[in-house]
Amino acid sequence: MYSKLKKELSESIEEALTKLRVKLDEELTFEEPPTPEMGDISSNVAFSLAGKLKKSPVEIAEEIKENIKLPLYFEKVETKGPYLNFFINYTLFSTKIVNYIDKRYGELPEKDQSILLEHTSANPNGPLHVGHLRNAILGDSLKRVLQHAGYKVESQYYVNDMGRQIAIIVWGMNKFGYEFDEDKKIDHAVGEVYFKCNQELENNPDYNQEIDEILHKYEDGDDQKLIDSFEFVVENCLDGIKQTLKDLNIKMNLFKWESTFLRNGSVENVLEKLQPFTILKDILYLPLEKYDVDKELVLRRSNGTSLYATRDLAYHQYKTKNSDISLDILGADHKLAAKQLSLALELSGNRAPEVVFYEFINLPEGSMSTRKGVFISVDEFIEQATQHAKDELISRDMDFTDKEMDEIARIIGVGSVRFYINQISPEKPITFKWEEALNFERGCASIQYAHARACKLLSKTEFDEFTDVKCDYELEDEEKELVKELSRFTEIIRQSADERRVHHLTEYTSSLSKAFNKFYKSQQVIGSEHESFRLKLVDASRITLKNSLKLLGIKAPEFM
């Protein structure tokens, strides 16, 4: 709604300029005045026209003001020097906003473009660790936002079942009889075996030749017993990973196995398309010097086996055929590999993916390595978040049963992790701090609490969410601020989807929560002479807060 206001204002200004026989050479932009007393929306269009009209911006602003016909939801325009300051008619606009907002608020018209979004795709040789966390949360949140923005989105997890890590586990289980500990979560049990196997390799590096032979056999695809062993390891580990993703409120549409593209001929197909550009000298590689990439892309080893990059090309060829947009979430350390991949795809007649690169999460605990067995799993991280939230709730002497306490602590803990990670632009690194993530005054918990407040207030009345109301009084400043924030939601969804950046939504959700809390603390709702309108305003806030949190993958509790 707020973007519609600005669009209508643009049209009115352009009509005024037409009367003045002036054509604007650039797109109109708007800003918010520094104080409400100066208006709600401001334009400095007079500056842009000063050179063309050979007049002072102050004079031009006055002429536009005299010739403008204000749109419906504006009550007046004033000039402040060269600025045009527009004042919203909040009586009309508020009536429109609160009656317009429903549970589908923020949804944009359906688009005819489909997106295949790949995220997480961690090797299935152990549990997800904190190094995977930002990828998973960014990917899932972006999927939700893009769907709300009208795209058809399918999320996929690319399963690296042909990697050396899986071969190491299969080798260790066959050679040393290692088994998965039934008392442990299965992906943790897989990771434990992987750690033991690596210890054996460190003690005797000659064993690596046996690993190479296993990999070669698996790629040949003739040994069904070996194939079954690889699948047994991968499927077990994925079962554990899926549970972790579920705990983070993440659901994948499809787990696509890497070996699929070798077995169905896709790898050979893409290599055939690249043949005019490749060089065979013991290894098969794609030279990329003329594309300003110093490092060649190796496509086949001297023993004839393919590489991860080769199979990834085949996977992205599949993406080209099965979507309009390929979108990958990758760590910043993959920039070179992504550039190589994109060039190879374009040379083979396929589509290069869009990539959202992210920097990593820093923790005081230090480095993480599944090979060395030193890492913080996402499962542990969730438990830490839940315990921190529970400790905070206990300190606040909340009147919960044990079951309610556990449920709310889990919701707050997971929500705080997701919100903290989403609130920072992916190009910036994150140093995770519990005291900030679980701050009940400024963090995600404060937003969840605002939603719970709204629910509690509405539960005290016979409020009917389906009955329209009319605003018939001059709103207080806190009400105006809240209405304006509510009206911005759709615009934020569009911006987040267009830029592939969800941190805009977290910033908005925080602003909306603050505006609601200021209104809640300053204005009487139940028993006031404006009760019906204010209840509707509370409900509109509840819906928008819930929708915002849902798009960030966060649950909105009805009590806290």
Per-chain topology:
Blueprint: H1 2-19, E1 41-43, H2 45-53, H3 57-67, E2 74-80, E3 83-88, H4 90-100, E4 114-118, H5 130-148, E5 152-159, H6 164-176, H7 186-203, H8 208-220, H9 224-247, E6 254-257, H10 259-263, H11 266-274, E7 279-281, E8 283-286, E9 297-300, H12 308-322, E10 325-331, H13 335-347, E11 354-358, E12 361-362, H14 378-395, H15 402-422, E13 430-431, H16 434-437, H17 444-459, H18 477-487, H19 489-499, H20 503-522, H21 531-551
Parallel strand pairs: 4-5, 4-10, 5-6, 10-11, 12-13
Antiparallel strand pairs: 1-3, 2-3, 7-8, 8-9
Helix pairs in contact: 2-3, 4-18, 4-21, 6-7, 6-8, 6-9, 7-9, 11-12, 12-13, 14-15, 17-20, 17-21, 18-20, 19-20, 20-21
Q: Can you describe this structure?
A:
By secondary structure, the chain is of the alpha/beta class. The protein has three domains: 2-88, Gyrase A, domain 2, CATH 3.30.1360; 119-362, HUPs (Rossmann fold), CATH 3.40.50.620; 422-551, Isoleucyl-tRNA Synthetase, Domain 1. Helices cover 54% and strands 11% of the residues. The chain is built from 21 helices and 13 strands. It has helices spanning 2-19, 45-53, 57-67, 90-100, 130-148, 164-176, 186-203, 208-220, 224-247, 259-263, 266-274, 308-322, 335-347, 378-395, 402-422, 434-437, 444-459, 477-487, 489-499, 503-522, 531-551; strands spanning 41-43, 74-80, 83-88, 114-118, 152-159, 254-257, 279-281, 283-286, 297-300, 325-331, 354-358, 361-362, 430-431. The strands form four sheets. Strands 6-5-4-10-11 form a five-stranded parallel beta sheet, with helices on both faces. Helix 5 links the parallel strand 4 (114-118) and strand 5 (152-159). Helix 2 crosses helix 3, helix 7 crosses helix 9 (224-247) and helix 20 (503-522) runs antiparallel to helix 21 (531-551). The radius of gyration is 29 Å and the shape is globular. Residues 366-370 have low confidence and may be disordered.
